[in-house]
Write a structure and sequence with these properties.
Blueprint: E1 2-6, E2 9-13, H1 15-55, H2 65-94, H3 100-112, H4 121-128, H5 137-165, H6 169-195, H7 203-209, H8 221-243, H9 248-267, H10 277-290, H11 292-317, H12 322-327
Antiparallel strand pairs: 1-2
């Protein structure tokens, strides 16, 4: 028991009561913080889209708007696939069944939070909503590490493979030198996630990250679903590049760059959702294919469609969160 001063008297307090008060306060903070983070992220999305609209010059290049609209479809499909992949991952890490609807809705909400600087929005939103899907907050937060490891490793393999298969001038020459070393290394990382038992991790790391039970950290479905996700990005790249005038071979040559650029943007921790960094990486691969003006148009169109896709996925999956809200 502990003691608390009240005026001139001392009262005995029960540690259990103190613990309950702390949990209640933390729960209230999460309920306030989660919608706040989502609202801030959505505000940034709208602001960024408005900024893109101001910078757009319709006279710079002829744009096929039908292809631009079509490029939104693979991005939306990819967003849903990514959310479903996380649901299987969080169930594996928590060693329990996780409802599909509330978990994919939480993932879509957290994806909006990636537009906040510092990349802290995603784990914060997932931890705040963890109770609604029946998993510990610690596990929801640490799942981001496992998810992103597979996300980056699989994306690196797919991107390098596409750049090597469909020649893209200097980009293919530069990356082709490292592909024979990078692809096997990334494949080893993926294999470690899906085959090595988590029991081999140091006990201290397992306690810190909240990993429970036995078995591999990631289900084998995770990298396969990430393959599908990155192929949707390649399809988006082909459509957007074609929309600004690239021929079939040029559009295919740009597909791998559209996979690698988001990874480069993600690794730039200070940039919200890789804004600016992703576009810089894309320009390196697009300018030799379509020229400067069409390349700039493709960059702006792709960023705009990405913002729209994130909001669309959130709106589509948000109703599935009803069960999560009711349980809270």
């Amino acid at each position: 028991r502990g003691f608390a001063a009240r005026g001139e008297h001392w009262a005995v307090t029960d540690p259990a009561e103190q613990s309950a008060e702390v949990r209640t306060a933390a729960h209230r903070l999460k309920r306030v913080l989660r919608p706040l983070m989502s609202a801030l992220a959505l505000a940034f999305v709208l602001w960024a889209f408005r900024d893109l609209a101001k910078r757009w010059d319709s006279n710079a290049v002829h744009v096929h708007w039908g292809l631009v609209a079509a490029s939104l479809v693979p991005l939306v499909i990819g967003g849903v696939v990514l959310a479903a992949a996380w649901r299987y991952l969080i169930a594996r890490l928590a060693c329990r069944s996780v409802a599909f609807g509330p978990s994919v809705a939480l993932h879509a909400e957290s994806q909006l939070a990636r537009y906040l600087p510092g990349k802290v929005g995603i784990p914060v939103v997932r931890m705040a909503g963890a109770g609604g899907i029946g998993v510990p907050a610690k596990v929801a937060g640490s799942s981001v590490l496992i998810e992103l490891t597979s996300y980056v490793a699989v994306g690196g393999v797919i991107g390098l493979g596409l750049v090597t298969a469909f020649r893209n001038g200097d980009v293919s020459e530069l990356l082709g030198r490292y592909a024979p070393l990078a692809v096997p290394a990334l494949a080893v990382i993926i294999a470690l996630l899906v085959f090595v038992d988590r029991a081999r991790c140091p006990a201290r790391i397992r306690r810190v990250l909240g990993f429970e039970g036995e078995g591999p950290l990631a289900p084998r479905s995770l990298p396969f679903m990430h393959v599908v996700y990155w192929l949707t990005w390649a399809a988006h790249g082909v459509l957007v590049t074609s929309a600004v005038g690239a021929d079939a071979s040029g559009a295919r040559a740009a597909a791998g760059v559209f996979v690698l650029a988001p990874i480069v943007g993600f690794l730039a921790l200070a940039a919200p959702a890789g804004a600016g960094v992703r576009e810089a990486a894309l320009s390196i691969g697009l300018v030799p294919v379509v020229g400067p003006a069409p390349a700039l148009s493709a960059l702006l169109l792709s960023r705009g469609m990405t913002l729209v896709a994130d909001v669309v996925v959130w709106l589509v999956l948000r109703p599935m969160r009803a069960r999560s809200t009711a349980s809270q």
